[in-house]
Every structure is written in structure tokens, then in C-alpha cells.
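We emphasize that the prediction below concerns an isolated chain of 135 residues; any contacts that depend on oligomerization or on bound cofactors are therefore not represented. The input was used exactly as deposited, without trimming of termini.
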Amino acid sequence: MTDLFKLVKLETFIFTDTQIKDKIIQLNNSVKYKITELDVVFELYKDKGNITQEEYTTEITQYLYNNCFDSKDKINSVIEENKSWFYDQYNEAVNNKKIYYHAVQYCRNQLSGFLRLKPVERENHETIDTIIFDD
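Result of the prediction step, given as a C-alpha cell string:
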């Protein structure tokens, strides 16, 4: 697997490996700049359009479970303590006041302020001319 694919997998939990790989290839063939994992995730959301409340919750909780040192109980507690605000972000996206991508990213960033995030190495953001996936 490529480094970019691995980074995208750290950012999203509702898209399949095939969807991610196809989007990376598509972006590499259509843009003239170095794409990042957030570029790929943004475009995946854009293609999908709407996400369900369950997908929204999955994106945020799985991200926090995978990227925080804190226990799942601690993460669940933080989400529960911020539940109304947590779902307000989703409702804003449903009502077209923000896009789903921004609702997810904003909520993750705010909730991670209550938690201990693991450092993520992001050295190799280079666009790859030929992508080879080792499955």
C-alpha cells in the first residue's frame, strides 16, 4: 500500500479500500499539485454527497479511537458530554449550513482538544506518478 493510501485510511472509516484507491488514482491523473490525504477524503465526501448520522458518528468515533491514546470509555464519555453540540454539527450539514466534510473535521478537532492525540507521521505527501497497491 502507498503512504498516501495509509494516511487516507487514518482519516476515513466509511469508504472502501477500492473507493479510496480509485479516488487517489483519479486525483493523481487530474490535478497538477501534490495531493494530501485530506484532499482525497474531501473528494470522497464530495462524491458521496450526504452521509447518514450513523456514518457521521462512525467517522468521528473511529478516528478518535484510532488516533488517541485515551481509552474508548474516555472517548465515549467526551462525546456524551458534548452530545448536543456533536449532533448540532451534523444537523448544520443536513441543513446545508456547512458541508459534511467540514462538520466531521471540525467536530474531530474540537473533541480531540479533550483527548490525547497520537502523533501521526506525515513525511511522504508526494504525488506518485505510478501507484502500485500491495493488497
